[in-house]
Input
Amino acid sequence: MTLDNTAADYFSLELAKQHLNVSNNLDDTLIQSYIDSSKGIVEDYLHAKTLESSYMASSEELIEVNGDLILYLTEKPYLIEITSNLGTETLEKRAYSYTGTYLVIPGVDGRDITAVTAKTGKVLQQVQILQARLLLVGSAYAYRENSIPLRMSEMPDGVRFILDNCSDASL
Output
């Protein structure tokens, strides 16, 4: 798994430019490259292949039992979206249960479910991860004249502090 690149990344060029206090477009390509690199650096530092992932199951993978929908899922989801003949609907946490192996969505009787999307990962720590990535981009931009690319050993202390306090053994 990797960071979910299919969803809109919560770290935008506009946010980075605001953080860097850059108002022109001259360095947009450079700043975007720092944004892209920051994702890999954070993943590597956390020794994780994922901070957030998305699994989409088609109707062929879904099992309906007594009006409930059952899906085999290896990680506990934090968000479930159902696509049916009525459109796409995001379920609240109390609208589904996770047994450790199976996701159970009760009461889907009569709906033509075409897909279920389950998002898993470290969503609760996105604020800390975003802050660490902003600091990385800021450091890389401030020292952009340096011919040596940013390496893990040169990671700013503030970034290390943030990431050390938001990682856990479940990654």
